[in-house]
UniProtKB/TrEMBL annotation:
RagB/SusD domain segment(s): 352-493
Protein name according to UniProt: RagB/SusD domain protein
Assigned GO CC terms: cell outer membrane
Main location: membrane
Organism expressing this protein natively: Chitinophaga pinensis (strain ATCC 43595 / DSM 2588 / LMG 13176 / NBRC 15968 / NCIMB 11800 / UQM 2034)
Stretches of the chain forming a coiled coil according to its record: none
Record keywords: Cell outer membrane, Membrane, Signal
InterPro entries cross-referenced by the UniProt entry: SusD-like_N (IPR033985), SusD_RagB_dom (IPR012944), TPR-like_helical_dom_sf (IPR011990)
Gene3D superfamilies the record matches: 1.25.40.390
Domain SusD-like N-terminal per the UniProt entry, residue ranges: 58-242
């Protein structure tokens, strides 16, 4: 991250700006970009923002609002969009309408292409997090419960954002300070060291948080699952341990979440899973834009006329055919539009579109089903095939619960006696049909399974693309490399 870029970003990401931003965003009077907010006329400033409980809370809440408020090409939906385009779950109706979409879809990203959404967005938020950690750590006037809770949330958020940086780009600079002069002194840090820092942040978060979801005061319990708790920390830890192939720790962390049966359950209808505050939800983002539920609903649900230049995305035949006969997830989470005598299946996990005044859906960032899939994989890799099959069958049980008389052969349980290799194949497909269009899982899964070259060589031919192995990682923007002499590009993009 260059000094020039950081000066610009940090100028607009200090606590004072955060406080102003949250007041504007949450009141829903503006959807302007975070960096475009005018200087506030207020007596609150960076020197005293952390001396008051309400303004300190507002600083951290502003980070959630920023994550939620950015439009879908930059916000939380971006991670559920672009990696899916890069992989094999989506089709693009028109390659001429949106250059962002086309470059990801055809795996033709270029270091000179400045509109790759993740690098700048993720680091910008990390700088805000670092500044808030420093401000809170130096405060002596806040309610201790509030200060500790906020710090726990911030360390969790930093871990969450670094997880995506390291999985999109590989080795990345590890920045834990808000001092912009230090940014050009940091070369790329090895992936295993980034993971170590992620786990360290999660350990701090675990000590600072509890099992409760709290309201805007941070002192009262709430049914809103929009601020992370210990379960969110354990859920992200389980994911990180799985990616690191530390299978016993991944199993243990996932089990801690799954065991919270009073709070989380898979025993709910498929149509209820993506409703706000469902018992499948571990952590979600609350919408803050007027008349929006989720950007996913607005982006993925096709209009009656079918895909067009504004809504060009639909589900690939390969994903559609990955569902086994009788799997009710296919019916519940995939919609269909017929246009010009052609069927267009589209992601319909989120169904509410722009203009609906009632907020019924939140963007879910962590949910219970992933924990069963993590534990199944961790158990299988430890040769506990019985336990792995049992976890996969929890999701099969849920899927066939919605079967109707018109589905005479609902999805069966997996049979006992499957080999470890067979279960690996099952898990990869189960992750695909359960987690499609969520969090970039498919792109990350085929890479860590060692199948990305095999799959993408075949898929790229259908996209008029040209797959090469180095494209498994995204390029770092050339502008940052030119301004930061120690920052090196990913191989293949020079």
């Amino acid at each position: 991250m260059s000094i020039q870029q950081y000066k610009k970003r940090f100028l607009y990401n200090n606590p004072l700006r955060c406080f102003c931003c949250i007041c504007i965003v949450l009141s829903q009077y503006s959807c302007r970009k975070y960096l475009e907010l005018d200087p506030p006329a207020t007596s609150v400033n960076a020197s005293n923002v952390y001396n008051d409980n309400s303004t300190a809370i507002a600083v951290v809440t502003a980070i959630y609002a920023r994550m939620s408020n950015t439009f879908y090409d930059q916000g939380p939906t971006a991670i559920s969009l672009y990696p899916e385009l890069s992989a094999d779950n989506l089709r693009l109706f028109s390659v001429n309408a949106n250059l962002n979409y086309t470059r990801h879809y055809q795996n033709e990203l270029d270091q000179r292409y400045i509109n790759v959404p993740f690098w700048n967005t993720l680091y910008s938020i990390i700088y805000s997090i670092n500044a808030a950690i420093e401000g809170l750590s130096g405060s002596v006037n806040l309610n201790t419960v509030i200060r500790d809770r906020l710090l726990g949330e911030l360390y969790f958020l930093r871990a969450y954002h670094y997880f995506y940086l390291v999985n999109l780009y590989g080795d990345v600079p590890l920045l834990t300070s808000s001092i912009y002069q230090e940014s050009i002194k940091v070369p790329r840090t090895a992936t295993n060291e980034i993971y170590a820092e992620i786990l360290a942040d999660l350990d701090i978060a675990r000590k600072q948080l509890n099992n409760l979801y709290v309201d805007e005061t941070l002192l009262n319990a709430t049914s809103e699952r929009i601020r992370p708790n210990i379960a969110a920390v354990n859920a992200l830890s389980a994911r990180v341990y799985l990616y690191m192939k530390r299978y016993p720790e991944a199993e243990d962390a996932a089990t801690k979440v799954i065991s919270e049966t009073a709070m989380y359950t898979s025993d709910i209808p498929l149509t209820e899973i993506f409703k706000k505050n469902s018992k499948e939800t571990i952590w979600s983002l609350q919408p803050v834009k007027n008349q929006f539920n989720t950007d996913e609903g607005e982006l993925f649900v096709l209009p009656d006329g079918g895909p067009n230049d504004v809504h060009p995305l639909y589900i690939s035949d390969d994903l559609l055919n990955s569902f086994e006969p009788g799997d009710q997830r296919k019916a519940a989470w995939i919609g269909h539009i017929n246009a010009d005598n052609k069927d267009y299946p589209y992601p319909a996990k989120y169904k509410a579109r722009f203009g609906e005044e009632t907020v019924s859906e939140y963007t879910i960032l962590l949910r219970l089903a992933e924990q069963y899939l993590i534990r199944a994989e961790a158990r299988n890799e430890q040769n506990n095939t019985v336990g792995a099959i049992a976890d996969l069958n929890v999701l099969h049980t849920r899927s066939r619960a919605a079967a109707s008389p018109q589905v005479p052969n609902p999805l069966p349980d997996l049979p006992a006696g499957l080999t470890q290799t067979a279960i690996r194949t099952r898990i990869l497909n189960e992750r695909r049909v359960e987690l499609f269009i969520e969090g970039g899982h498919r792109w990350f899964d085929i890479r860590r399974a060692g199948k990305i070259d095999e799959i993408m060589t075949k898929v790229s031919a259908t996209k008029n693309g040209n797959w090469q192995s180095f494209k498994a990682l995204y390029p770092i923007p050339l502008s940052d490399i030119l301004l930061s002499p120690l920052l090196k590009q990913n191989p293949g993009y020079n």
